[in-house]
Amino acid sequence: MGFTTLLVASLAAATSAMPILNPIQMMARAGPVAGQVITKCSAPGQLALAYDDGPYQYTQKLSDILKNGGAKGTFFVTGTLYGCIYNQKTALQSAYSAGHQIASHTWSHPQNFGSMSTADLNSQMTRLETALVNIIGVKPTYMRPPYLATGGNVLSTMKTLGYRVITDDIDAEDWNGKTPAQSQQKFQQAGASGNGHIPLMHETYQGTVETLTPWLINWAKTNNLKLVTVAECLGDAGGAYVNGTGNGASTC
Ligand SMILES: [Zn+2]
Predict the structure, then answer these.
(1) Which of 52, 53, 168, 174 is catalytic?
(2) Is 100 a catalytic residue?
(3) In whole angstroms, what is the distance from residue 78 CA to residue 112 CA?
(4) What is the pTM of this model?
(5) Over the Cα atoms of the chain, what is R_g?
(6) For the NodB homology domain, which residue ranges apply (predicted)?
(7) Domain range summary for the chain, segments of one domain joined by +
(8) Among 105, 187, 193, 213, which residue has the fewest nearby CB atoms (within 10 Å)?
(9) Are 171 and 186 in contact (CB under 8 A)?
(10) How far is the CA of 133 from the centre of ligand 1 (A)?
(11) Residue 15: is it exposed, middle or buried by C-beta count within 10 angstroms (0-12/13-18/19+)?
């Protein structure tokens, strides 16, 4: 290959590798694409502990256990599933301040999420956004669908709303009556290698908060896994939230 050919080839490679983006393209490139299902982290060496269905009576305790263990967790919260979200306002603010990620698990956790109209899906998301702006001052860009339902209008609506859709790659099955010991086996079977796990767990079970979580913190240390938020494990540390508009409400 002559010098000129080499130069042209290099320029072509550089151009294709680093296209010049306009600002809208730059924004679109920041973090994971909205409306596509994400099951695990984008790189090895990390574990994104993720908990659904709160806030509830264990939210503060879980936040503290994670913080004391040097871990960041992700809380996929609802508006009304285990009581009104404003009842746990202080715990949510504390978890947010501790650096845990607060994400959406819809307003009321509908059983028919995968077959709802776009208007109803929008309402489920925006009602929680407003409450979270009231409580922590920002709205989330990450969500996990109730029952991991990603059919019907879910993905197209989440794309429009700018939500990154998270499911899981390990199901702790705490929701299915598994004991913490049985959940631990699922992590051991999955192993610590490969891109980081995003497990499905629930902060509404005492065993998950008080037994499984300390065990996972220890398991991560033993396996040299960094305990990070879902956004962090997707290379999107600064992208977990956007600004939103609250309405001053303090009741559901
Ligand atoms: Zn749930």
Answers:
(1) 52
(2) no
(3) 15
(4) 0.89
(5) 20
(6) 45-228
(7) 36-242
(8) 193
(9) yes
(10) 21
(11) exposed
Query: Angle, to 10 degrees, between the axis of helix 59-68 and the axis of helix 89-97?
Result: 20
State the catalytic residue, choosing from 109, 168, 202, 236: 202
Ligand 1 centre and the CA of 79: distance in Å? 11
What spacing in Å lies between the alpha carbon of 223 and ligand 1's midpoint? 28
For 96-112, give the DSSP string. Answer: HHTTPEEEE--SS--TT
202 is catalytic: yes
The CA 160 to ligand 1 mean position distance, Å, reads 22
Confirm or reject CATH 3.20.20.370 for domain 36-242, answering yes or no: yes
In one-letter notation, the amino acid at residue 180 is P
Q: In the predicted model, is pLDDT for residue 241 greater than 60?
A: yes
Which tokens hold the place of 125?
A: 């998301």
Reported as a single tens digit per residue, the pLDDT across 92-109 is 999 999 999 999 999 999
8-state DSSP, 210: I
pLDDT tens-place string over residues 168-218? 999 999 999 999 999 999 999 999 999 999 999 999 999 999 999 999 999
